[in-house]
Amino acid sequence: MLTSLDIKKLQSVFATKEDLKGFVTKEDLKDLEHRFLFSLDKVMNELKGIREDLTAGTHRSSQNSKKIENHEERISSVEESLYF
């Protein structure tokens, strides 16, 4: 049988219900996971938008490069006709 001294020793070793209130519960972890995934969704949507913007910008840049090349040819042609 346990004596009161034994019980006091055990109480000092084992956590009480009050002690355990400060620990994370399964519900806390589920909520944390939900918030993390929701935040990750926001980040992924932002990255998707940035990627789409970059793709559109690259396409526009390519079109502009072709126009610049065309202008260079036309300017050279005009210069040749003026000087010869």
Mind explaining what this structure looks like?
By secondary structure, this protein is mainly α. It contains three helices and no strands. It is rod-shaped, with a radius of gyration of 36 Å.
Number of helical segments with 4 or more residues? 3
Biggest beta-sheet profile: none
First-residue to last-residue Cα separation: 119 Å
Give the helix level as a range of percent: over 70%
- Rough outline: rod-shaped
Strand coverage percent = under 5%
Topology:
Layout: H1 4-13, H2 17-20, H3 26-83
Summarize the structure.
86% of the residues lie in helices and 0% in strands.
State the main characteristics.
84 residues; rod-shaped; mainly alpha; single chain; 86% helix; 0% strand
